[in-house]
Amino acid sequence: MKQIVIIGNGIAGITAARHIRKQSDHHILVISSESAHFYSRTALMYVYMGHMKLGHTKPYEDWFWKKNRIDLLQDKVVQILPETKTLALEKTAAISYDTLIIATGSTPNFYEWPGQELVGVQGLYSQQDLSLLETHAPNAKVCKRAVVVGGGLIGVELAEMLHSRHIPVTFLVRENDFWNGVLPQKNAQFIAAHIRSQGIDLRTQTSLREIRGANGKVTAVITDQGETIECDLVGITTGVKPNIDFLKNSSLAIDKGVLVNSYLETNLPEVYAIGDCAQQQQPMAGRRAIEAVWYTGRMMGETLAQTICGRRTAYRPGHWFNSAKFFDIEYQTYGWLHSETHKKADEIHFHWQHPHKNLALSLAYHSESERFLGVNSFGMRLRHEILDRWLSEEQPLSYVLAHWADANFDPEFYTSYQNQILTAYKAQSGKEIVPLKKSWKRIFKLKNSRS
């Protein structure tokens, strides 16, 4: 029976622990310096907005861990000593391991701006960050204005959180439109307009130059346009980076993250890395070396548990997908639909936007084969299994559009807008596609094949 030690109690580490326990009697210890118990990180915003309490973010009751023989330790690992297979801890005595899993997640990315050490400057990642936000921005009386720096999913999340408490928000985004390093221009413009419609002071083509303060607390920011914006809180949401600083003086091979192969193995025997902190040395075609996404952490945890329990399994994440929310607009993406600055010459885009509702759709396809490459959907829920299948089958765009009703998440309650989408496609391309009615037989057959 091995001593399995997992550093980090996020989705990657806890998924690994749960699946190792399902398949073995190994002793499992999870160490975390952030929280005593695993919680849903993505739910933090709803705690601040008053929709949930902190206790509601825990997917498992506190008794779950003892019942399943998963030991928990709230402490900080300060050093890995692979020669003796031990971990040096901040508070307690050193701990030995037979197998070590590093799942330390991410940390907010700061860029050494003058004044970033001031009280009231923070990121949004952990429970500690949520506590700081409650302290410095409990309401509009204490926080008369907040400045959020950096576009992206965390930035718009923080802006929505602060806005829910009636705190005025200025949002600094260096790109021409919101997140247009990721989104095509029409999508970026669509989301930028929606953010502004919510009452957010979105400043595009504007970067942070300096943070100023008095008595150790933030009082204003200076932009690269030379403008001074008075504020009581500065939210840094310029991305995240792997949380690996404590590994820099070890013999573990690291780059931006902990370097791993397709089996999530590091250069050290019986040491693995998963989740946000893991960097694939040879990522699959179309995937990034580091993917700080909830579901990839979960998949890595499941995959690694197979290997540790005697069934060596390579990490194969499949087609890229993600989902998020821009205030009240739900966003889903499948496959790859690149921004104008990153797409290749043979990637063609088709865009549709509803004239009156906050609905939009973008599809990418290959210029010669017309193979479906990816989709961005705004305000419309799509079926994961349908999009994943179309990408795997390399269906042409004509097939995807003709069968678009099949992709609708819930046909009983949601409109597919297929006819409007096909009309727009004909106007843009000159090609007419006859829509096929939703086939429940096709959907039922697909669902059964995935069971």
Explain what the structure shows.
The chain is an alpha/beta fold. The protein has 3 domains: 3-107 and 241-308, FAD/NAD(P)-binding domain (3-Layer(bba) Sandwich); 121-238, FAD/NAD(P)-binding domain; 321-450, 3-Layer(bba) Sandwich (FAD/NAD(P)-binding domain), CATH 3.50.50.60. The chain has helices spanning 11-23, 44-48, 63-67, 127-136, 153-164, 185-197, 294-308, 384-393, 397-402, 404-407, 418-429, 440-450, and strands at 3-7, 27-32, 70-74, 77-81, 86-89, 95-96, 99-102, 106-108, 121-122, 146-149, 169-173, 201-204, 208-214, 217-223, 228-230, 233-236, 240-242, 258-260, 271-273, 278-280, 321-326, 329-335, 347-353, 360-366, 372-378. Strands 3-2-1-7-19 form a 5-stranded parallel β-sheet. The chain has a 5-stranded parallel β-sheet with strand order 9-16-10-11-12, covered by helices on one side. A 5-stranded antiparallel β-sheet has the order 21-22-25-24-23, sandwiched between helices. Helix 5 links the parallel strand 10 and strand 11. Helix 1 (11-23) packs parallel to helix 7 (294-308). It is globular. The two termini are 33 Å apart.
Q: Uncertain regions: pLDDT < 50 for 5+ in a row?
A: none
- CATH secondary-structure class of the largest domain: Alpha Beta
Shape summary: globular
Q: Write the CATH homologous superfamily of the largest domain.
A: FAD/NAD(P)-binding domain
- What's the β-strand tally? 25
Q: Supply the helix-strand structural class.
A: alpha/beta
Helix content: 25-40%
Distance between the termini: 33 Å
CATH architecture of the largest domain: 3-Layer(bba) Sandwich
Tell me the β content.
25-35%
User: Which fold name is given in CATH as the topology of the largest domain?
Assistant: FAD/NAD(P)-binding domain
The domain count comes to 3
- Mean pLDDT value: 94
Widest β-sheet, arrangement of strands = 3-2-1-7-19
Main sheet overview: 5 strands, parallel
**Secondary structure tally, helices:** 12
Global Rg:
24 Å
